[in-house]
Write a structure and sequence with these properties.
This is Voltage-gated potassium channel regulatory subunit KCNF1. The chain is mostly helical. Helices cover 66% and strands 5% of the residues.
Length: 489
């Protein structure tokens, strides 16, 4: 350690003033030497490099408060920092902005900027985006780790009802928490499939029965299966609602609204069937029941709760609203233009199928999407040419936004996998650090016991017992954690 007044530093006066004031300084960052001039550094006087100009007048205490080492012979300041990040940061003195190179961790680069006392406002907007994305990833990892720790932890101060709520919530919402929870998740998935299949099979005429009024209705066996599935969905929803930590957030969640829409039609139609006939005509009741039974298709969306792939697709579509909007805009413009042209070109034909421009919208839609039902088609040569151009433009309009949408899906899917892996690594590191901390405490106890054993043979016997019963056991735990870490990688 170099101290003030050391004979090895002859270029600094004892009163702390410089003998020969110069306007340039030499900085060595991780083996990379850079020469700076005072007029450049003084543009930003609050930065660390600008403070180096005047630090020599403050003596070695002032020097070593800013750098790691100093060579008075070469007048060179040494810093044990990242040279690649430093090369990016010094751009602020020449260009007034900073760009972060590829391959540098945004969080580490932010720490480097804080060390050199350069404000983040000089970081370019494109690099700020990478920094904000990295912060969001770290926050998401911390949130996932905290959720796992909350699930593992048991607060003895909580009431029995609170502990029971947590257990039910984990049992129904987190299949990975235990084997019975996985069984419940599989059962719920099977009930959704059975209910969807029953809804479809119930519309087959050969499986329907005729009631006293001559109306067709579902087979009683299928109706009983439907009732059992609805009973399962109802019990599951009520238990999840009771055990949810935040009931308002639970009720307003999109997937939980889907659950309500899948359950509600059954009870509404049941109420109308038994009570509605007294208030309105029977035919109106049957029409209302049939309309409500159509809403049973909402239960197929319950599969998204048990499928990470469907959830990823939903989030990817949310991130692709801009691309989807462009697709719809292209199609809307093309539909309007080609339907108007088709109506104009076909109007002179005596057997034209284009009666009006709004009616031509249907033809433009099925043509640009390359469906082509054939119910409306052009009969003139110009109309056929217009149709050919319209479906070629439709193929191009549909194909252009598809690639960005697929990229969003792949990026989000890979990101979720990385976050899951990172959360597991974080938990493994926490376990490893905990094991190392216990080993360090045991080692300090062993050293104390070893010193005491020189004076008292009784402590020697304690040392042997402590070494064999505690220290080796922790080593085996540490080895176990390292193996799990390597397997995660």
């Amino acid at each position: 350690v170099k101290m003030a007044g050391d004979s090895r530093f002859p270029d600094v006066d004892t009163d702390g003033s410089e003998k020969n004031e110069e306007t340039e300084i030499v900085v060595n960052v991780g083996g990379v030497r850079q020469v700076f001039y005072g007029d450049n550094l003084n543009q930003y006087p609050e930065t660390r490099l600008a403070e180096l100009i005047n630090c020599l007048s403050g003596g070695y205490d002032s020097i070593f408060s800013l750098c790691d080492d100093y060579d008075p012979g070469k007048r060179e300041f040494y810093f044990d920092r990242d040279p690649d990040a430093f090369k990016c940061i010094i751009d602020v003195y020449y260009f007034g902005e900073i760009h972060m190179k590829k391959g540098i961790c945004p969080i580490c680069f932010k720490n480097e900027m804080e060390f050199w006392k350069v404000d983040l406002k000089f970081l370019d907007d494109c690099c700020k985006t990478h920094l904000s994305e990295k912060k969001e990833e770290l926050e998401e990892i911390a949130r996932r780790v905290q959720l796992i720790l909350d699930d593992l932890g048991i607060d003895a101060s909580e009431s029995r009802w609170k502990r029971c709520q947590k257990y039910i919530w984990k049992f129904l919402e987190k299949p990975e928490s235990s084997y019975p929870a996985r069984v419940i998740a599989v059962l719920s998935f099977l009930f959704i499939l059975i209910s969807s299949v029953v809804m479809c099979v119930g519309t087959i005429p050969d499986l329907q029965v005729v009631d006293a009024e001559g109306n067709r209705m579902e087979h009683p066996t299928l109706d009983s299966i439907e009732t059992a599935c609805i009973g399962w969905f109802t019990i599951e929803y009520v238990l999840r609602l009771i055990s949810s930590p935040n009931k308002l957030h639970f009720a307003l969640s999109f997937m939980n609204i889907v659950d309500v829409l899948a359950i509600l039609p059954f009870y509404v139609s049941l109420t109308l069937t038994h009570l509605g006939a007294k208030l309105m005509e029977l035919s109106n009741v049957q029409q209302a029941v049939q309309a409500l039974r159509i809403m049973r298709i909402a239960r197929i969306f319950k599969l998204a709760r048990h499928s990470s792939g469907l959830q990823t697709l939903t989030y990817a579509l949310k991130r692709s609203f801009k691309e989807l909007g462009l697709l719809l805009m292209y199609l809307a413009v093309g539909i309007f233009v080609f339907s108007a042209l088709g109506y104009t070109m076909e109007q002179s034909h005596p057997e034209t199928l284009f009666k009006s421009i709004p009616q031509s919208f249907w033809w433009a839609i099925i043509t640009m999407t390359t469906v082509g039902y054939g119910d409306i088609y052009p009969k003139t040569t110009l109309g056929k040419l217009n149709a050919a151009i319209s479906f070629l433009c439709g193929v191009i309009a549909i194909a252009l936004p598809i690639h960005p949408i697929i990229n969003n899906f792949v990026r989000y899917y890979n990101k979720q996998r990385v976050l899951e892996t990172a959360a597991k690594h974080e938990l493994e590191l926490m376990e490893l650090n905990s094991a190392e901390g216990k080993a360090a405490n045991s080692k300090s106890e062993l050293e104390i016991l070893a010193r005491e054993g020189k004076e008292d043979p009784f402590h020697c016997s304690r040392l042997k017992v402590s070494h064999s019963d505690t220290f080796i056991h922790l080593l085996s735990e540490e080895k176990h954690y390292r193996t799990r870490l390597q397997s995660c990688k």
